[in-house]
Design goal:
Blueprint: H1 3-15, H2 20-27, H3 31-40, H4 42-59, H5 64-84, H6 92-108, H7 126-142, H8 147-184
Helix pairs in contact: 1-4, 2-3, 5-6, 7-8
Length: about 180
Protein backbone atom coordinates (compact mmCIF):
# COMPACT_ATOMS: atom_id res chain seq x y z
CA UNK A 1 0.00 0.00 0.00
CA UNK A 2 1.05 3.58 -0.63
CA UNK A 3 1.66 5.79 2.43
CA UNK A 4 -1.58 7.79 1.86
CA UNK A 5 -3.59 4.57 1.48
CA UNK A 6 -2.08 3.31 4.75
CA UNK A 7 -3.12 6.51 6.52
CA UNK A 8 -6.63 6.31 5.08
CA UNK A 9 -6.96 2.72 6.28
CA UNK A 10 -5.51 3.74 9.67
CA UNK A 11 -8.21 6.44 9.97
CA UNK A 12 -10.93 3.92 9.13
CA UNK A 13 -9.65 1.35 11.63
CA UNK A 14 -9.23 3.92 14.42
CA UNK A 15 -12.75 5.24 13.73
CA UNK A 16 -13.88 1.65 14.33
CA UNK A 17 -12.03 1.77 17.70
CA UNK A 18 -9.45 -0.84 16.66
CA UNK A 19 -6.38 -1.11 18.89
CA UNK A 20 -2.87 -0.07 17.88
CA UNK A 21 -1.77 -3.73 18.09
CA UNK A 22 -4.51 -4.81 15.68
CA UNK A 23 -3.76 -1.95 13.28
CA UNK A 24 0.00 -2.51 13.33
CA UNK A 25 -0.54 -6.20 12.46
CA UNK A 26 -3.12 -5.42 9.74
CA UNK A 27 -1.15 -2.65 8.08
CA UNK A 28 2.36 -3.87 8.83
CA UNK A 29 3.42 -0.68 10.61
CA UNK A 30 5.09 -0.08 13.97
CA UNK A 31 3.04 0.73 17.05
CA UNK A 32 4.97 4.03 17.36
CA UNK A 33 3.77 4.97 13.86
CA UNK A 34 0.20 4.35 15.04
CA UNK A 35 0.71 6.71 17.97
CA UNK A 36 2.22 9.40 15.71
CA UNK A 37 -0.56 9.08 13.14
CA UNK A 38 -3.15 9.22 15.92
CA UNK A 39 -1.88 12.69 16.90
CA UNK A 40 -1.50 13.80 13.28
CA UNK A 41 -4.88 12.49 12.05
CA UNK A 42 -7.00 13.00 15.17
CA UNK A 43 -9.44 15.40 13.44
CA UNK A 44 -10.06 13.04 10.51
CA UNK A 45 -10.60 10.10 12.87
CA UNK A 46 -13.04 12.11 14.98
CA UNK A 47 -14.86 13.30 11.85
CA UNK A 48 -15.22 9.78 10.50
CA UNK A 49 -16.46 8.52 13.90
CA UNK A 50 -19.06 11.30 13.97
CA UNK A 51 -20.16 10.49 10.43
CA UNK A 52 -20.49 6.80 11.26
CA UNK A 53 -22.40 7.61 14.43
CA UNK A 54 -24.75 9.92 12.50
CA UNK A 55 -25.44 7.15 9.99
CA UNK A 56 -26.13 4.78 12.87
CA UNK A 57 -28.50 7.27 14.49
CA UNK A 58 -30.32 7.71 11.19
CA UNK A 59 -30.56 3.97 10.59
CA UNK A 60 -32.13 3.46 14.02
CA UNK A 61 -34.30 6.59 13.79
CA UNK A 62 -32.59 8.28 16.72
CA UNK A 63 -32.31 11.75 15.17
CA UNK A 64 -35.29 14.09 15.12
CA UNK A 65 -35.24 14.27 11.32
CA UNK A 66 -35.20 10.50 11.01
CA UNK A 67 -38.04 10.12 13.52
CA UNK A 68 -40.12 12.71 11.67
CA UNK A 69 -39.46 10.94 8.34
CA UNK A 70 -40.36 7.58 9.85
CA UNK A 71 -43.52 8.90 11.53
CA UNK A 72 -44.57 10.64 8.32
CA UNK A 73 -44.00 7.50 6.24
CA UNK A 74 -46.01 5.40 8.67
CA UNK A 75 -48.78 8.00 8.77
CA UNK A 76 -48.88 7.91 4.96
CA UNK A 77 -49.22 4.13 4.99
CA UNK A 78 -52.02 4.37 7.56
CA UNK A 79 -53.81 6.92 5.37
CA UNK A 80 -53.43 4.60 2.36
CA UNK A 81 -54.76 1.67 4.36
CA UNK A 82 -57.72 3.75 5.54
CA UNK A 83 -58.48 4.74 1.94
CA UNK A 84 -58.55 1.08 0.87
CA UNK A 85 -60.45 -0.29 3.88
CA UNK A 86 -63.98 -1.56 3.50
CA UNK A 87 -65.36 -0.07 6.69
CA UNK A 88 -68.15 -2.61 6.89
CA UNK A 89 -65.65 -5.49 7.31
CA UNK A 90 -62.68 -3.99 9.16
CA UNK A 91 -63.08 -2.06 12.39
CA UNK A 92 -61.55 1.31 11.53
CA UNK A 93 -61.09 2.21 15.20
CA UNK A 94 -57.66 0.64 15.30
CA UNK A 95 -56.41 2.43 12.19
CA UNK A 96 -57.92 5.72 13.33
CA UNK A 97 -56.40 5.23 16.77
CA UNK A 98 -52.97 4.65 15.22
CA UNK A 99 -53.39 7.65 12.95
CA UNK A 100 -54.19 9.91 15.91
CA UNK A 101 -51.20 8.58 17.83
CA UNK A 102 -48.86 9.21 14.90
CA UNK A 103 -50.25 12.70 14.38
CA UNK A 104 -49.63 13.42 18.06
CA UNK A 105 -46.10 11.99 17.83
CA UNK A 106 -45.41 14.25 14.83
CA UNK A 107 -46.69 17.28 16.78
CA UNK A 108 -44.28 16.43 19.60
CA UNK A 109 -41.39 16.55 17.11
CA UNK A 110 -42.43 20.05 15.99
CA UNK A 111 -39.84 22.79 16.40
CA UNK A 112 -40.97 26.37 15.98
CA UNK A 113 -38.67 27.86 13.34
CA UNK A 114 -40.19 31.32 13.52
CA UNK A 115 -37.40 33.77 14.30
CA UNK A 116 -37.78 35.41 17.71
CA UNK A 117 -38.88 39.01 17.89
CA UNK A 118 -35.67 40.98 17.52
CA UNK A 119 -36.96 44.28 18.84
CA UNK A 120 -40.20 46.11 19.31
CA UNK A 121 -41.05 48.49 16.53
CA UNK A 122 -41.74 52.14 17.42
CA UNK A 123 -45.40 52.61 18.19
CA UNK A 124 -45.86 49.06 19.48
CA UNK A 125 -49.12 49.19 21.34
CA UNK A 126 -51.97 47.38 22.92
CA UNK A 127 -53.43 46.48 19.49
CA UNK A 128 -50.22 44.58 18.66
CA UNK A 129 -50.46 42.71 21.96
CA UNK A 130 -54.10 41.80 21.35
CA UNK A 131 -53.18 40.61 17.83
CA UNK A 132 -50.40 38.45 19.34
CA UNK A 133 -52.88 36.89 21.76
CA UNK A 134 -55.31 36.16 18.92
CA UNK A 135 -52.55 34.68 16.79
CA UNK A 136 -51.44 32.44 19.65
CA UNK A 137 -55.01 31.28 20.25
CA UNK A 138 -55.40 30.38 16.57
CA UNK A 139 -52.11 28.46 16.58
CA UNK A 140 -53.16 26.57 19.73
CA UNK A 141 -56.51 25.64 18.16
CA UNK A 142 -54.85 24.44 14.95
CA UNK A 143 -52.30 22.38 16.89
CA UNK A 144 -49.33 24.33 15.54
CA UNK A 145 -47.88 24.86 19.02
CA UNK A 146 -47.60 22.53 21.98
CA UNK A 147 -49.01 23.42 25.37
CA UNK A 148 -45.48 24.09 26.60
CA UNK A 149 -44.72 26.47 23.71
CA UNK A 150 -48.04 28.24 24.20
CA UNK A 151 -47.29 28.67 27.91
CA UNK A 152 -43.92 30.28 27.15
CA UNK A 153 -45.46 32.60 24.58
CA UNK A 154 -48.22 33.56 27.04
CA UNK A 155 -45.59 34.56 29.59
CA UNK A 156 -43.88 36.80 27.03
CA UNK A 157 -47.17 38.37 25.92
CA UNK A 158 -48.18 38.90 29.55
CA UNK A 159 -44.85 40.61 30.25
CA UNK A 160 -45.35 42.88 27.23
CA UNK A 161 -48.84 43.78 28.41
CA UNK A 162 -47.60 44.61 31.93
CA UNK A 163 -44.79 46.72 30.50
CA UNK A 164 -47.26 48.57 28.28
CA UNK A 165 -49.65 49.16 31.21
CA UNK A 166 -46.77 50.40 33.38
CA UNK A 167 -45.62 52.82 30.67
CA UNK A 168 -49.16 54.13 30.16
CA UNK A 169 -49.66 54.57 33.93
CA UNK A 170 -46.33 56.40 34.23
CA UNK A 171 -47.35 58.77 31.42
CA UNK A 172 -50.67 59.53 33.16
CA UNK A 173 -48.99 60.07 36.55
CA UNK A 174 -46.44 62.42 34.96
CA UNK A 175 -49.25 64.40 33.31
CA UNK A 176 -51.18 64.58 36.58
CA UNK A 177 -48.09 65.76 38.47
CA UNK A 178 -47.52 68.47 35.85
CA UNK A 179 -51.10 69.71 36.31
CA UNK A 180 -50.77 69.71 40.10
CA UNK A 181 -47.45 71.57 39.97
CA UNK A 182 -49.09 74.20 37.74
CA UNK A 183 -51.81 74.85 40.34
CA UNK A 184 -49.39 75.27 43.25
CA UNK A 185 -47.76 78.33 41.70
Amino acid sequence: MKPQELKTEFIRLRAENRSYNFISEQLGIARGTCENWERELKEQITSLKAEQLGELYDSYYMTREARIRRLGDTLGRIDSALDDVDLSEVPPEKLLDHKLKYIEALKEEYIDLTPPLQRLEPGFGVRDIVDSIGDLLNRIRSGEVTTEQAGRECLVINSLLKAYETTELKTKVDALEAVLEGRQI
